[in-house]
Amino acid sequence: MRGIIINVRNGETIKDSQNVLISMLEKLLSKSSVEEKKRILTEKYGMIMTTELEGRMHTVCNWSEAIKEMSFKEGIEKGIEKERLNAIERMIQANLTKAQIISCGYTEQEFAEAESLLCSNV
After folding, report:
1. What percent helix, strand, coil does the chain show, rounded to 5?
2. Which of 42, 46, 80, 91 could make an SS bond with 96 (beta carbons 3.0 to 4.6 A apart)?
3. What angle do CA 93, 94, 98 make, to 5 degrees?
4. C-alpha separations of 84 from 91, 94, 104, 121 in Å
5. What angle do CA 104, 107, 111 make, to 5 degrees?
6. Contact 75, 83 (CB under 8 A)
7. Is there a contact between 6 and 25 (Cβ–Cβ < 8 Å)?
């Protein structure tokens, strides 16, 4: 099995890549509307929009949106986890007991992780 990694940049101020494939991918995965993407691929790259190609474009566009949504949700979850640990650290520093902290709805695992983080920061 072989694989490659392609760095697809994003942003409106970037210049087009000199590599045609990467340039096309960047346009396809951009924030532009599907209609704008079709126009660019037709005019700039000479692609003929067949029903099959349009269907594949919609699939790729939906795929990129799904990745963004998953990343967003993952970021929120990590932020919540971090804030829960920060809250436990503040409670430990305020001299609350482990039992008091656990009674506030935190888990033993969260308490142990926050305690470990506090010890490593000392």
Report:
1. 65, 0, 35
2. 91
3. 80
4. 11, 15, 11, 17
5. 90
6. no
7. yes
The secondary structure element, H or E, covering residue 13 is: none
pLDDT digits 0-9 by tens, 102-111: 999 999 999 9
One-letter amino acid identity for 63?
W
Amino acid at 15: K
Which single residue is written with the structure tokens 């490659």?
A: 4
- Within 10 angstroms of residue 24's Cβ, the number of other Cβ atoms is 18
Whose tokens are 């067949």? That residue is 50
Give dist(CA 4, CA 70) in Å, integer: 23
38-91 residue pLDDT tens: 888 889 888 888 888 888 877 877 776 777 788 888 999 999 999 999 999 999
Helix, strand or coil, per DSSP, at residue 118: helix
Element (H, E) at 17: none
Residue 18 Cα distances to 9, 76, 88, 108, angstroms: 13, 36, 51, 54
Tokens of 9: 């940049």
